[in-house]
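[audit] Reproducing an earlier prediction to check determinism. Same input, same settings, fresh worker. If the tokens differ from the archived copy the diff job will pick it up downstream; this log only records the rerun itself.
[audit] input (236 residues):
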Amino acid sequence: MKRILMMVLRNLYMVPFAWIRLCYRAAHVDKYTEEDMYAFLRWIDLRANRGGNVHIDVHGQENIPAENGFMFFPNHQGLYDVLAVIEACPKPFSVVAKREVAGIPFLKQVFACMKAYMIDREDVRQAMQVIINVAGEVKSGRNYLIFAEGTRSKNGNHVGTFKGGSFKAATKAKCPIVPVALIDSFKPFDTNTSKPVTVQVHFLKPLYYEEYKNMKTTEIAAAVQERIQETINANI
């Protein structure tokens, strides 16, 4: 909470204007191209990070596929995770998030601008439809991010168990899977401090369909989880 307040206060001159623009865009998403909307979100994100003493240390941007139609699978440390990836990634992407965060102010508007899907983990039919929709959009060239742990680990830089079901959209789309290792991403919003913090974002080498087509989704999940944890261990 302290850091969010600092982000607002240090950008107080622009907050009303930016908030009005964000809310308008969230309510009129079809008026804008995905590239324009993403550039706007990065503009807000960058200023919020500077105001909140958050530095994003990016590694492996060269591992982001040149062609669209891929999926990011990061570890899930906290509410700040998506904002870290937005600053780190120059290419537009959307998100599949749990329905519980759909009503959080600011994140609600950001997810609306990204045309994100909110998944209800208690509704199997709705969750399956989200998987089908995401797979179709990835095939058509959109990029997506899914947290395969399903919920925040709450164990700092120790990765929780990646769930095989989270990779069904990727296997249906036959798309590149890009593991993303987040380090200290829990500190900006999930600790009660405003001290300067550096969040590391590591884009790891993609797994292409030819590499994982004969693997079960549980095996893909385990492989991605292992790569991410190894990267975290090597950089903390």
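[audit] rerun output stored. Observation attached for the diff report: The two ends are 25 Å apart (CA to CA).
[audit] end
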